Every structure is written in structure tokens, then in C-alpha cells.
Amino acid sequence: MTGASESRLPGNVDQNNIEQSPFALLMNLTNTLTQFFLGAVAFSAIYFVNIFAGSSSLKLHVYLCVTGYIILMSQAILSLNPYTSWTKNLKREDKKIIHWVMQITGSILAIAGSIIRIIDVQPNFRTAHGIVGLVAMICTFFSLVSGLVNLISMQFRNNINLTKIVHSAMGSLAISTAYICLCLGFHNLYRNVFGDKNANLSIVLAAFALIGTLTSASTNIFRRIFS
């Protein structure tokens, strides 16, 4: 969601000169690298679960959570950034629709994936991965609720920055805990199958993907506060 016109950007950069701004070049590079890291992390997790002799609930858990958090929710955050290549030429209203569809779908998939694993593994909360995963699921639920509240409130008042900022903050918290949970999964199961080097590489890729996604989220929050 954007609380101001797309023409009002950090540093009062004019929309027509955005491509010549050093800040814009930096953000374009950051978003391009973030897209690469997101793809690498998603591939790494899905490839692993396909060759790992795990239960069907584990495979479904990974499919749903990776699709929900890494592919959809992360891209939903990036879609609102004016420097994201695949949405930069879209109208603000089109970006908002894309964001809502990806965010709601991703949240539902991620929550469903977490519930499936919780039901199947009874001592799930005895591990760091299980505990952080539960926190991520709760944060995702509240992020979804805050987003729906924001969507409804927009029908009655314009430029309600507070609800937008709360939603952005909750979404960032949900994504952060989800990535931490994923890194814990890489540290445990992934390391046992592919070894230390590959596990460490996957963790680093996930960390960079999270940093890039949060950078985009922070830029959006900054624009809402000072717009």
C-alpha cells in the first residue's frame, strides 16, 4: 500500500529524473540482487525437500511456507517499491491490487503450511525452528489482520498513514521471523545432507534476501512517514 503519490519519493526525487538519481541506481541494484537471492533461496529449499527422505507433511510444509513467505510475501513487499523493475511502470492502483493479492495468498499458504507441520509433529515446539516458526505464524496472522483493517479503513478515510505503517511493521516482523526459521532449518536438516559449506551458503543467501526485502519495506515506511 502506498500512502502518497508515486511521484513523491525519498529525497524529493522528481519522477522524471528518478533514473539519474544515485539513490535510484542504488535501489535498482539492491532490488535486482534481492530478486536473485530470493530465487536462490526458494530453489535451495525446494530442491532439498525433494531429495530428502522426509514425511509428506514436511514436504508440504516446505512447499507452502517457501511459496508463501519467500515467493509471494517477499515479492508483495517489493511490488510497492518504486524501484522494483517488474512493477515500476505500473499505476499505483495496479501495484496495490498486486500487493493485496500476493500478500493475502502468501499469508494463507504460509499459515496453512505451519499448521500442517504443527499437527503432524507433536513435540514441534521443543526445537528453535519450531518455536520461531510458531512466532512467524502468529506474526503473519496479525500482519494479515492489520492489512485487512488497513484495506477497510481506506474506504472511509484517505492517507491513513498510521494503519499503513503498522501493517508494514507487522509484515516486516513476520518476514523476519520466517527467514530466521528458514535459516534454522538450513542449519539443522540441510547441513546434515549437503554439508557445512552448502548449508552456510544457503544461510548467507537467505540473510541477503531478507536484508534486501527489509530495505524495500523500510523505504516504503519512510515514504509514508515523510510524504
TrEMBL record:
Its EC number is 7.2.1.3. Its cofactor is heme b. InterPro entries: CYB561D1/2, Cyt_b561/ferric_Rdtase_TM. Residues 29-224 form the Cytochrome b561 domain. The chain crosses the membrane at residues 36-54, 60-80, 100-119, 131-153, 165-187, 199-222. GO terms for cellular component: membrane. It holds the Pfam family Cytochrom_B561. It is an enzyme of class 7 (translocase). It is a multi-pass membrane protein. Its main location: membrane. The keyword Nucleus does not apply. It is found in: Membrane. Keywords: Electron transport, Heme, Iron, Membrane, Metal-binding, Transmembrane, Transmembrane helix, Transport. GO terms for molecular function: metal ion binding; transmembrane ascorbate ferrireductase activity; transmembrane monodehydroascorbate reductase activity. This is ascorbate ferrireductase (transmembrane). It comes from Parnassius mnemosyne.
